[in-house]
Give the backbone structure.
Amino acid sequence: MGNIPDSHPRKASLLSRQRIVDATKDGFLADSAMIAHGRGEAFDYLLGEKTSDSAKLAIKEVAARLIAAKKPVISVNGNTVVLAGKNIIRVAAVLNCPIEVNIYYRTEDRMEKLNSFLEKQKELLSQENSPEGWKGDWSSAVMSVKILGKVGDGRIEGLDGPRSVCSAEGIERADVILVPLEDGDRCEALVNLGKQVLVVDLNPLSRTAKMATVTIVDEISRAAELLLEYTIKNDQMPTKWNNNGILNEALEIIAKNSRTI
Amino acid sequence: MGNIPDSHPRKASLLSRQRIVDATKDGFLADSAMIAHGRGEAFDYLLGEKTSDSAKLAIKEVAARLIAAKKPVISVNGNTVVLAGKNIIRVAAVLNCPIEVNIYYRTEDRMEKLNSFLEKQKELLSQENSPEGWKGDWSSAVMSVKILGKVGDGRIEGLDGPRSVCSAEGIERADVILVPLEDGDRCEALVNLGKQVLVVDLNPLSRTAKMATVTIVDEISRAAELLLEYTIKNDQMPTKWNNNGILNEALEIIAKNSRTI
């Protein structure tokens, strides 16, 4: 890929793409991860590759619901770890909530790789200055984030086979789940269990986007950065949320951008 | 992936995806091929995964221009070969025109693989019944399709490095080039050389789509099937073509589909 100048208008997108290509080579991701990323790229392109005002509202709502939750968990797959792992750990540190590695095509090798990667990232992040606005012992907040998922001792009722496997301490008992880049079936099953399912999905037409309690229609690394900011700020309670309204606003942006060549 | 029932509304899309995943594993495609495919999937999804009336007009125009050309060539990359190789060879047989393997990230290994694959496909296709409506010796028409590209003895003026390499007998001397899934820079360079550049691109906002002489906004395997039909039918002359108009129609479809959840 070579060096991309800072002035390149699509630099962030090209760097994310390279991260996904590299992580695939390193065995972190399933075959289809690059295809999923490409789909995301196209939707982000149509969204103007920036966080919309309505996506910001959704991120604020997600922050509020995670803070208000009794047993929150952040479920991550390979693409999320690669694109936004650091900020997801920071958010989990602020919320004092566990992260569960939960991947669609579960193999021991990938579970192990993603798990170790997150543990190493925790060590790195525990050395950094605490994020702006955060008060407390950052190092110990980061190090106390539990990385779950290796032990698949829980089940998601309503699903069969490997996709039903989860952590008893994580997704199984959680009341509120932030699960970026989720599959439609699993999103539906989690909603049917009465859990609040908060997702990040660039396709406002996807089944996941439509099924979720709150849908952030935004690119995961941008969304995670703002989520960290809003989680620290903590100045809002959960609202009565109109998720269809937010999806319609995203679709309006795509429709508008499609008319302006 | 398992067996996808015939009734699955997205069966064709899922099979194409699997073909790209398999071909990547087999070393036919560059790293970024899956990401490009995913981007295409997203646009095709927004286009309703069907060939629009305006795309049909573009395919007819492309057929007419290839038939009227003095030195036509069909330039193919890895994704095109994997998704539509057979019908591209059939079209080349009908037109009596060469195919040039020309890939963005040129490596000897991939060039060799794609070349041999097409030669083997030619042998297979030479045994089949001639396509409906075609008269003549199908076997010899298919076997006489030249597969160019291994010898990079031509240059595309206006480009530097490996991307400028082409076949002297193919792209360099061609007056009309059908080049599905092309890169924007190369499309621009070919147009600047005064050649007619006919492209297939699912993103009506891409630089390639905007630069080309005629843009087919459609999925390559669907487009290639219709192109074969129209090339055999041969009932139209090239027209004065309004490519911006056709792009606007594709964007209207995306905008409309974005408003109908």
About this structure: Chain B touches chain A at residues 17, 20-21, 24-25, 31-32, 34-43, 45-46, 203-205, 210, 247-248, 251-252, 254-256, 258-259, 261 (CB under 8 Å). Residues 64 and 237 of chain B are 5 Å apart (CA to CA). Chain B has one domain: 53-257.
